[in-house]
Write a structure and sequence with these properties.
Length: 285
């Protein structure tokens, strides 16, 4: 037996078998890596069990809608030829980015990605030029970053941070803590309840049906600040200033600086060149 196993014939058989086993193992490893690698597609994709979403949509618009799904569903719409949507799930986070063909210079006008997500999903968008809409989300983390695309957040709650270069921001029927930073664009609140830190370089800040529940700051470089509050003014301390505009809290008017009230909640309003008005919602005509 030893002589046979040690013969050239059997040694050749062993070498061939070992080679085939090695090739099989490499093939299995390759399949495993490809399954965990990012996937490119333009069709509808579902990620069951996902709890967070991270999107870099480029020039595409983004819509994130809360749903009763058990995971995240990606629905591309009007994707131009040559564009691909690359996505993967790492741990429980779905990462999505848009890749455009080389040499493509035009901005797609109708292309967008709709995400249907569980209402508590952690959401981050970054590197996006298109509009971003978030609706029906209740999350401790909603972070939206865009350059020129309009931002709209509706019927949501939690902690929201919006950073935009020159994009209008519309907040409607939202509850929670909000931080907004934008350039020469307007910020509008409707039906908001919570605390806010809002800064715009050259746009205006307007609000109606707003209930401030924690210390808040509103700043504009050259635009007006005009908020209609549901709060009773006895619960607020106002600290306002403007270099050239008019300051007003209810029927109290001043220039340059105005401090009014002794309530436990402090609201600061600052504008370099615009007016700063705070009114009761009941006073709005």
């Amino acid at each position: 037996m030893r002589n046979r196993l040690g013969s050239p014939f059997y040694r050749a058989i062993f070498r061939l078998t070992a080679t085939r086993l090695t090739v099989a193992v490499i093939a299995l490893l390759t399949v495993a890596v490809s399954c965990s690698a990012p996937v490119s597609s333009t069709g509808v994709v579902s990620y069951p069990g996902a709890k967070a979403l991270n999107v870099n949509a480029g020039t595409f618009s983004v819509v994130v809608r809360g749903s009763d799904n058990a995971g995240i569903v990606i629905v591309p719409e009007a994707v131009p030829d040559g564009f691909t949507i690359v996505h993967e799930m790492v741990d429980d986070t779905v990462h999505v980015r848009v890749e455009k063909p080389i040499g493509f210079l035009r901005t797609p006008t109708n292309a967008r990605i709709v995400f249907l997500v569980p209402r508590g999903t952690l959401i981050t968008t970054s590197g996006t030029v298109g509009a971003v809409t978030v609706t029906g989300i209740s999350s401790e983390h909603i972070a939206v970053q865009t350059s020129t695309g309009a931002v709209r957040v509706t019927e949501s709650s939690g902690t929201l941070a919006v950073t935009a270069t020159d994009a209008t921001v519309d907040i409607e029927d939202v509850r929670g803590a909000i931080e907004v930073r934008t350039g020469n664009a307007n910020v509008e609140f409707t039906g908001f309840r919570g605390s806010a830190a809002v800064t715009t370089s050259g746009g205006s800040i307007t609000a109606s049906r707003v209930a401030i529940t924690g210390d808040s700051t509103f700043r504009s470089g050259t635009g007006d600040i005009d908020l209609a509050l549901e709060n009773g003014f006895d619960s607020i301390r106002f600290v306002l200033n403007s270099s050239r505009g008019v300051l007003r809290v209810g029927g109290n008017t001043a220039s340059r600086s105005l401090t009014y009230g002794t309530g436990p909640i402090t609201i600061e309003g600052h504008s370099s060149g615009g007016n700063v008005f705070f009114r009761r919602e009941t006073d709005v005509q």
